[in-house]
Q: What sequence folds into this?
């Protein structure tokens, strides 16, 4: 199956006829792989494996958001055992974990050392037993602005990704988000559906999560 009018065409247009080297060549390969994905699970597995390579990471997972329930749910993972997966299988948007914060912020969240991050304290024992010491989470945001989920990679040692690694994962997750939008949008007669509704739902849910967090902070202060 190949996508029609795949949004990653903008990525191809940006490259133009320039020779492909380094980052650009790897992203071009990812774009080609994603075009061949026949289902969403294949897209998730592809972008997760690519991101583990980019970040030189030991573990990773991809979560998709169910905006009706307000939960991120793990749909693909590499390297984790049952205790970690059961604990983080469903994560609320207002959670203090790196993945929930990345979704709310619509940007990369890096926890260089889980023992030094106060928001992550409630989850550090679970992460520690899984062998995790650092986390990088990147939201899956389409070119239309719809937030679909979060991709996280995890490290056994204290770590901060380089600017090149952050940029590479941002581009990879953007391509994956566009691929997911297109796969979801193909209805029975093959026509493309509008993604604006998904965009609005994501913005509304993030706004509601921020309100809940603000109320919680006010209650603790009082």
A:
């Amino acid at each position: 199956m190949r996508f029609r009018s795949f949004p990653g065409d903008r990525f191809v247009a940006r490259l133009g006829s320039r020779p492909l080297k380094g980052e650009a060549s790897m992203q071009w390969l990812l774009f080609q792989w994603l075009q061949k994905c026949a289902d969403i699970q294949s897209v998730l597995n592809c972008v997760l494996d690519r991101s583990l390579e980019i970040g030189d990471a030991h573990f990773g997972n991809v979560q998709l958001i169910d905006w009706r329930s307000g939960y991120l749910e793990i749909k693909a993972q590499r390297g984790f055992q049952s205790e970690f997966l059961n604990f983080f299988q469903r994560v609320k948007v207002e959670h203090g974990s790196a993945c929930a914060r990345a979704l709310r912020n619509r940007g990369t969240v890096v926890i260089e050392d889980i023992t030094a991050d106060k928001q992550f304290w409630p989850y550090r024992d679970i992460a520690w037993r899984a062998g995790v010491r650092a986390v990088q989470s990147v939201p899956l945001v389409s070119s239309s602005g719809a937030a679909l989920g979060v991709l996280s990679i995890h490290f056994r040692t204290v770590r901060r990704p380089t600017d090149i690694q952050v940029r590479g994962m941002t581009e990879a997750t953007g391509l994956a988000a566009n691929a997911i939008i297109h796969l979801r949008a193909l209805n029975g007669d093959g026509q493309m559906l509008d993604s604006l509704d998904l965009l609005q739902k994501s913005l509304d849910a993030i706004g509601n999560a921020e309100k809940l967090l603000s109320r919680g902070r006010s209650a603790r202060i009082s």
User: Anything to note?
Assistant: Residues 1-22, 187-196 have pLDDT under 50 and may be disordered. The beta strands are 59-66, 71-78, 90-92, 109-111, 134-141, 147-155. The radius of gyration is 18 Å. The helical segments are 9-15, 22-36, 40-55, 82-88, 98-105, 124-129, 163-185, 196-221.
